[in-house]
């Protein structure tokens, strides 16, 4: 395996931030993964695993080893009796592009991840933050996660329950942060129609464009259309999707806010109420604003963009200013969804 030194990470994160890694390597097979654990650069340095870098912000150079997950492969597992005739198990390796897994599923008519179309990132990163969009999340279909313990090289399979999935959250972002490398995931998808088009923006789009939903692919296509119309393409303008999480708020606070802002959007989820952070940021006057090389996207205030040449500190600084103004105006604290490194 090749170990590169003093490597510029600009093309390896979707913000397009130039930051240097002391060492960089990539893992393309399970044999290479085993070899990795024997290397002195691995043993002697702090390390991070990177998929497609779509949810990280490098705020400074990384004085350690960056390991790119390039493990590839998607296959249908022999369905055991336990999944029944209506379901299928699909195993995907961590370095696969997430959207390619969605295409694999919808091309075969399977249901369960079509609402998650076009989410940037790799399969290995998906359980980290329990990716979600348009009323669906990975937790609805995840069967298990295969991983390697970084300290020992031991394999471990996490059941879905053991992953402790929450809203944009999992055990891998908390208790077990940087402790496991995710090598593969298995999903349980439905062979029978299981459409989920209750998310308002999705149902409005389907109705307005008179789209017939017969296959999971029809939903996938609709989701792609919405995302392309609203979210900036990182190939054109650097960004990491939503920079912040939406905010869970107590009922009393919702009431108080509705009395001042009767048109405030809010959603009920698992018995809690969530306010879109994009709305809070927009109301605080940030939508479309630019400060030097960085700014807030003009169509979706939850997305911070690199207009070109920004460094991580500038993005972090803008994010901190947004947090401060939302806190001052609404008394609510925004929490980043993006991992700051
Ligand atoms: N809104 C505004 N102004 C904005 C943006 C949003 O007022 O600038 C309000 C609107 O009222 C809109 C509501 O927020 O009705 C919801 O907006 P949207 O459907 O665009 O979703 P979101 O809550 O802003 C979340 C995810 C996105 C995901 C969409 C669609 C988080 C942090 N973000 O955004 O995920 O694509 O829902 O399901 O939960 C990502 O994680 O990177 C990401 C893009």
UniProtKB/TrEMBL annotation:
Coarse class of the protein's main subcellular location: cytoplasm
EC number: 1.3.1.98
Subcellular location(s) of the protein: Cytoplasm
Pfam annotation, one family: FAD_binding_4
Enzyme class: oxidoreductase
Gene3D superfamilies, per the entry: 3.30.465.10, UDP-N-acetylenolpyruvoylglucosamine reductase, C-terminal domain (3.90.78.10), Uridine Diphospho-n-acetylenolpyruvylglucosamine Reductase, domain 2 (3.30.43.10)
UniProt record, GO biological process: cell division; cell wall organization; peptidoglycan biosynthetic process; regulation of cell shape
Keyword Transferase appears in the UniProt entry: no
Pathway: Cell wall biogenesis; peptidoglycan biosynthesis
Cofactor(s) demanded: FAD
Family statement: Belongs to the MurB family.
Function: Cell wall formation.
HAMAP family according to UniProt: MurB
Protein name as catalogued: UDP-N-acetylenolpyruvoylglucosamine reductase
Lineage per the UniProt record: Bacteria, Candidatus Nomuraibacteriota
């Amino acid at each position: 395996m090749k170990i590169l030194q003093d490597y510029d990470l600009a093309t390896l994160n979707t913000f397009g931030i130039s930051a240097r890694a002391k060492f960089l390597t990539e893992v393309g097979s399970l044999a290479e993964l085993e070899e990795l654990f024997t290397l002195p650069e691995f043993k002697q340095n702090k390390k991070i695993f990177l998929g497609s870098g779509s949810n990280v912000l490098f705020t400074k150079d990384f004085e350690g080893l960056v390991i790119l997950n390039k493990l590839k492969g998607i296959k249908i597992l022999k369905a055991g009796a336990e999944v029944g005739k209506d379901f299928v198990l699909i195993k995907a390796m961590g370095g696969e592009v997430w959207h390619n897994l969605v295409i694999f599923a919808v091309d075969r008519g399977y249901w369960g991840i079509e609402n998650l179309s076009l989410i940037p990132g790799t399969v290995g990163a998906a359980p980290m933050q329990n990716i979600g969009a348009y009323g669906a999340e990975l937790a609805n279909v995840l069967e298990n996660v295969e991983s390697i313990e970084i300290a020992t090289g031991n394999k471990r399979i996490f059941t879905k329950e053991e992953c402790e999935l929450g809203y944009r959250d999992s055990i891998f972002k908390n208790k077990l942060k940087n402790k496991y490398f995710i090598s593969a995931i298995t999903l349980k998808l439905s062979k029978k129609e299981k459409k989920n088009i209750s998310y308002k923006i999705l149902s409005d789009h389907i109705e307005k464009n008179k789209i017939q939903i017969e296959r999971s692919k029809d939903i996938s296509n609709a989701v792609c259309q919405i995302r392309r119309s609203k979210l900036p393409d990182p190939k054109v303008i650097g960004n990491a999707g939503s920079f912040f999480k939406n905010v869970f708020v107590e009922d009393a606070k919702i009431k108080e806010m509705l009395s001042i802002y009767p048109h405030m959007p809010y959603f009920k989820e698992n018995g809690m109420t969530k306010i879109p952070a994009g709305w809070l940021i927009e109301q605080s006057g940030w939508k479309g604003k630019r400060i030097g090389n960085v700014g807030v996207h003009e169509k979706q205030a939850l997305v911070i963009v690199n207009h070109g040449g920004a460094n991580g500190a500038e993005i972090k600084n803008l994010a901190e200013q947004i947090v401060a103004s939302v806190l001052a105006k609404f008394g609510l604290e925004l929490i980043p969804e993006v991992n700051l490194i």
